[in-house]
């Protein structure tokens, strides 16, 4: 799916479909309610997309998140029902984009399904950068938490991926509201993780927002519908409605990360359902 936004061409690229426990995706929402929007399989898993974004303005080639990559072991792949191979590399190749052309990789946060594709294994099974010429951009708070080794965060982050980025990548740590390149700025939302970022692309009076996991799909437009993985759920419940209010007022395009059918939508306020998606471009 492609969106032309002034100087920006925004292409959705597949970081790898997978399945995740429905209770993880919907937190406190009972299954009797969420199963009407996302049908679980026999293992209570629901289908999740991994829509990364390739953004090009003629000067920069920016990749937003990297999916889970191609290096996971067979048991992990079976558990999450991951696609074979390296879906992101395949998707970029279909667009005619070489990995060496990407000059910025920006992360909403550093969970496995967003950072895994940034590191691959070479022929000797050693970690190497998937995008060797890119500056890798992450929020300062997110990086400090992911690399801290704190016991309460150990299972949230892939130690191998984080340490490989530390050793191999040109890292840039950013703050709330920082401009990465002209027309691309950060918005610190927190909630899902303390340092979680959304990204705003702006050009010619138009805006497209990649909300990341603060609002991963059109299923999550209500305040209380959020992931059980959210480390700071109260911040999600405060900050997500404000992001959606700004999106509705500004008529932003929303680039959904984990929605298995919707890729791009606008949102409008609704008196009964808080917010609803309109003008949706679907992937299936």
From TrEMBL:
The keyword Metal-binding applies. GO terms for molecular function: hydrolase activity; metal ion binding. Gene3D superfamilies: Ribonuclease Z/Hydroxyacylglutathione hydrolase-like (3.60.15.10). Residues 49-252 form the Metallo-beta-lactamase domain. Keywords: Hydrolase, Metal-binding, Zinc. Its EC number is 3.1.1.-. Pfam families: Lactamase_B (PF00753). InterPro entries: MBL_superfamily_lactonases, Metallo-B-lactamas, RibonucZ/Hydroxyglut_hydro. Belongs to the metallo-beta-lactamase superfamily. This is Putative quorum-quenching lactonase YtnP. It comes from Bythopirellula goksoeyrii.
């Amino acid at each position: 799916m492609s969106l032309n936004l002034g100087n920006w061409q925004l292409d959705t690229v597949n970081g790898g479909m997978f399945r995740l426990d429905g209770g993880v995706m919907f937190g406190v929402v009972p299954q009797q309610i969420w199963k009407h929007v996302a049908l679980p399989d026999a293992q209570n898993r629901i289908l999740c997309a991994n829509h990364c974004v390739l953004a090009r303005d003629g000067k920069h080639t920016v990749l937003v998140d990297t999916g889970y990559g191609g290096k996971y072991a067979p048991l992990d792949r079976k558990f999450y029902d991951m696609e074979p191979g390296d879906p992101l590399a395949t998707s970029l190749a279909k667009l005619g984009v070489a990995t060496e052309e990407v000059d910025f990789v920006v992360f909403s946060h550093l969970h496995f399904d967003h950072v895994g594709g940034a590191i691959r294994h070479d022929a000797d099974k050693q970690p190497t950068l998937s995008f060797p010429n890119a500056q890798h951009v992450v929020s300062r708070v997110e990086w400090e938490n992911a690399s801290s080794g704190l016991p309460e965060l150990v299972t949230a982050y892939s130690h191998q991926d984080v340490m490989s980025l530390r050793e191999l990548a040109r890292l840039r740590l950013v703050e709330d509201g920082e401009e990465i390149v002209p027309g691309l700025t950060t918005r610190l939302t927190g909630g899902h993780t303390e340092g979680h970022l959304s990204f705003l692309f702006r050009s010619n009076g138009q805006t497209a927002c990649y909300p990341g996991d603060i609002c991963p799909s059109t299923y999550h437009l209500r305040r209380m519908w959020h992931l059980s993985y959210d480390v700071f759920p109260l911040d999600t419940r405060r900050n997500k409605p404000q992001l959606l209010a700004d999106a509705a007022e500004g008529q932003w395009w929303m680039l959904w990360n984990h929605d298995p059918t919707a890729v791009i939508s606008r949102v409008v306020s609704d008196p009964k359902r808080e917010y609803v998606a309109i003008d949706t471009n679907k992937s299936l």
